[in-house]
Amino acid sequence: MDDSLEDSPSPPQEPSSKEKKYDRQLRMWGSTGQVALESARVLLIQAGPNAVGIETLKNLVLPGIERYTIVDPSVVTEEDTGVNFFVDGESIGQLKAKVCCQMLQELNPDVDGEYLTEPIESLLRNPSFLLGYSLILVAAPIFSPTLKTIAAYAWEHELPLFYIHSLGFYSYFTVSLPPCFPVIETHPDQSVAAELRLTNPWPELAALAKEVTAGLEEMNDHDHGHVPYVLLLLHYLELWKQDNEGRVPATYREKLEFRKLVEAGARTENAEGGEENYEEAAAAVLKSLNPATLTWSIREIFQATECVELTTDSPIFWFVAAAVKDFERKHHVLPLHGSVPDMKAKTADYIRLQKVYKAKARQDAAEVLANMRVIKGELGCTSEEIYERVVDDFCREAAFVRFFRGQRLPVACGGEDGEFELAGEAVEHEPTSGEGQALEDPESLMPLYITLLAYDVFINSRSRNAPPHSPDSGPTTLLNHAPGHASSTVHTDEQELSRIAHSILFRCTRSGGGDLHNISALTGGMVAQEAIKVITRQYVPADNTVVFDGIRSKVWVFRRTADMFSRP
Amino acid sequence: MGREAYPKQSLGSLYRRIKESRVLLVGAGGIGCELLKNLVLTGFGEIHLVDLDTIDLSNLNRQFLFRHEHIKKPKALVAKGVAGKFNPNVKLEAYHANIKDPMFNIDWFQGFSLVFNALDNLEARRHVNKMCLAADVPLIESGTTGFNGQVQVIKKGRTECYDCNPKETPKTFPVCTIRSTPSQPIHCIVWAKSYLFTEIFGTSEDDAPEFDHSEDSENSEEIEKLRQEAQALKRIRQSIGSPDFARKIFEKIFGEDILRLRSMEDMWKSRRAPEPLDFDKISQQALVIDTSVTQKDQTAWSLPENFVVFSDRYDFLERLRLGELINCSLRRLSARLQDAQAKAANGDVSPVLTFDKDDDDTLEFVAASANLRSIVFGIETKSKFDIKRELPRKELVDGMY
């Protein structure tokens, strides 16, 4: 957008070798995303024979993060060679962090890597070392109190934290985002049409419509069939308004009538038996003539405390949000996106139309920028920093900007008596489905999730990092910790949940607590994808838990919140 | 148990079937590298890998089996060498070859218990789909684009196959597909419209919307040759309006350029090599064709018919002397361009013609030259009507000013 706003395109330059190497991913997140990635420092905390952490890191090293650190005190075992492709027979007995660090480095010489073989518990005696990272990955198994410490520290210092567990055919991960996490570039679906402001055109657009549609009836067939549909709609809206006391068609019935008016204008006695531009115009009536309403996402931002109660220290995002809010209050529309869809038109007309839209978008952004100066002035902000780029981006994406309320990573813990207890655990579903429904739905992965949490608790109630190796005794012991009380708080059939949990636990313990390489590889891919979204602040991140069932090949994303499993 | 501990515990007795299986993986690209690693670590007994490509710098950000020092080496062979080390119990076989090569026949496909498609193009996917149906071997088909991906299991008689649903044809094409190795009518149509037409009558543009430059860096030598080829064509443009203009153009694009392509033997190992067209011979055949052939727009024209629509007939000069109407599209367009240039005031930008599918002159030129190119490459020809339908409606000009 920045480039196309320039009046003359810059001469094309031979791409650098770095641009060539990262060519495919630059198409996804652009150079701003790449810059963010290249300054990201990722910490991986893991222990025991599992591959999911390393697989995640592989997918972050390849696209080029700045650096990574692996914390892992364990040595390579023979089991490792079956799940982790970085280690082979020769590395058995060596420090796993060291071997993996070296191999990861080979994947991308642009990335720095280091490893620490001190146990995480001793490193956490000085938790401020976590501040050196922009993102933390923790791969299970991990001692619950240790995880709690990390979760609390990451939350307090607004560090994104991922907790990942891959177990046999199953896996899940939870993302703990900072308390307020805005995303400007959410990359909405291409099919979502940009607002065209047809019901309230600004003077330049109205003038263009008037000029191009002048003498419409007398035009020759070629010209008549090439009037851009946007301008046709504006023309017929004017006619409609003359007959309707200046109002635009608002109700469904009126829109249908208006569509008839448009369709009646098309010439049918030509070779094609109709006109494509008129067809486009008619097709756009129902979706393009809606009064400007705020998307729920921008409404949420306008109402956020951070937007209402600005302070001099507020992040730039909220200053821009407040400036856009002022714009909206004054004009009752969001700043114009500025792009025009493809349509049947003469090239010259189409370019003029584009220019009118682009110019208006620029004008709107300038007004927002001016609003922001006023707001800053009122607050007595001394900083002269003006973030034009953020303003441009925000204005362009205004309808789709999102922000997320992260939360502290909930940690499942065993009670004193080894009883299953999910302190501070909670699950929140899509508003349409209650928790009970989610459990009774055979398609739901909720039982799997609860069982995996129970497994975490069980592991922690035993000695650390020592999964139950006996496939026979495992389930019975585990089921003593079965999530019976979880089922009572989510109002479902306890016996049914136990039955499902039993079969899941059987498979979990049968895997001997280990992961399968392919499941870990797939999970590592998903975690890395979410990590990239968080690092680049682009696209919509999974908020906040993802469960994968490799037997049914099903993924479930839901938001886990505080206090759902707590006792009444 | 060691290395096999976890999969053995999870799969129980089924694990033996994995160890004893013989599987085929077609493609060692983004999906292929990851899948090969997963198959090797899971312990599939014997894995055969086929890939035609060599490694390029732009692969390294995701095809993690390859390093900088592997650039230009065959993907299949490097992948085998690297992934083979992940598990000494797995037997790997690699082929630097096109899966459409006749040596990969039905018998060969029948030797596998499972086939994985990790391909990047429709044509090869369709081919493997067909082979797997014929051999009755289950196929797992996969693909990604951007942040989206899909996997489909295809088993004869049990599931739908890859071609059971019509697939949306891509709207952009790699430059080399258009300029050097077309395999479908649309490739020739795009060539005629976005390359030939603009080079002769328009402003030559490297950035026609149909061109996908993402593979340019992988084919830099060929891209350079193509650039020279385009410049040679531009020089011929200087002689527009001269009596032998049509012959010059024809012999350049359907003769000389084709001979150059033909000489690149590697390109035609698994494709049919193009056959150049002979101007004199075809213009003799074209003597009996009436120029009203352009009205016949619902059926595909024959070679001499296409020739007549595209170019002057052999007896052009004589007929001109007799005052007959000369009706080939090349000459009509040349006349229009010269006319516009004559009218343009000095100092104005030199006028050009722009393609419009509703403009019969430009449409016929594109249709005839696309069909002639299809004949050269052994591709099915299309009627003027069908070609009009395939053409994009309007140039996208977003961001061009």
Automatic annotation (TrEMBL), chain A:
Whether Transferase counts among this entry's keywords is no
Q: What's an example of a GO molecular-function annotation for this chain?
A: NEDD8 activating enzyme activity
Q: Does the keyword Signal apply?
A: no
Any matching Pfam family: ThiF
Q: Where is this region: Disordered?
A: 1-25, 464-493
Which GO biological process entries does UniProt record here?
protein neddylation
Superkingdom, taxonomy of origin? Eukaryota
Task: Could you list this entry's UniProt keywords, alphabetically sorted.
Answer: Ubl conjugation pathway
Bias-annotated ranges (Basic and acidic residues):
16-25
The THIF-type NAD/FAD binding fold domain sits at 22-554
What stretches pass through the bilayer? none
Q: Cross-referenced InterPro entries, in alphabetical order?
A: APP-BP1, ThiF/MoeB/HesA, ThiF_NAD_FAD-bd, Ubiquitin-activating_enz
In what pathway does it function?
Protein modification; protein neddylation
A cellular-component GO term for this protein:
cytoplasm
Annotated function: Regulatory subunit of the dimeric UBA3-ULA1 E1 enzyme.
As for family, the record states: Belongs to the ubiquitin-activating E1 family. ULA1 subfamily.
Q: What is this protein called?
A: NEDD8-activating enzyme E1 regulatory subunit
TrEMBL record, chain B:
What range(s) does the Ubiquitin-activating enzyme SCCH domain occupy?
332-388
Enumerate the transmembrane spans. Answer: none
Q: Give one Pfam hit by family name.
A: UBA_E1_SCCH
Q: Which SUPFAM superfamilies match?
A: Activating enzymes of the ubiquitin-like proteins
Q: Which parts of the chain are coiled coil?
A: none
Query: Record's superkingdom?
Result: Eukaryota
A molecular function (GO) term = ATP binding
Please name the GO terms of the biological process aspect recorded for this protein, alphabetically. Answer: protein sumoylation
The alphabetized UniProt keywords are:
ATP-binding, Metal-binding, Nucleotide-binding, Ubl conjugation pathway, Zinc
Cited InterPro entries: ThiF/MoeB/HesA (IPR045886), ThiF_NAD_FAD-bd (IPR000594), Ub-E1_IAD_1 (IPR042449), Ub_act_enz_dom_a_sf (IPR023318), UBA_E1_SCCH (IPR019572), Ubiquitin-activating_enz (IPR035985), UBQ-activ_enz_E1_Cys_AS (IPR033127)
Output the Gene3D superfamilies linked to this UniProt entry. Ubiquitin activating enzymes (Uba3). Chain: B, domain 2 (1.10.10.520), Ubiquitin-activating enzyme E1, inactive adenylation domain, subdomain 1 (3.50.50.80)
Location of the active site: 176 (glycyl thioester intermediate)
**One GO cellular component, as annotated:** SUMO activating enzyme complex
Q: In which pathway does it act?
A: Protein modification; protein sumoylation
Q: Where is the THIF-type NAD/FAD binding fold domain?
A: 15-189
Q: Which family does it belong to?
A: Belongs to the ubiquitin-activating E1 family.
The entry's protein name is Ubiquitin-activating enzyme E1-like
Q: Which organism is the protein's source?
A: Trichoglossum hirsutum
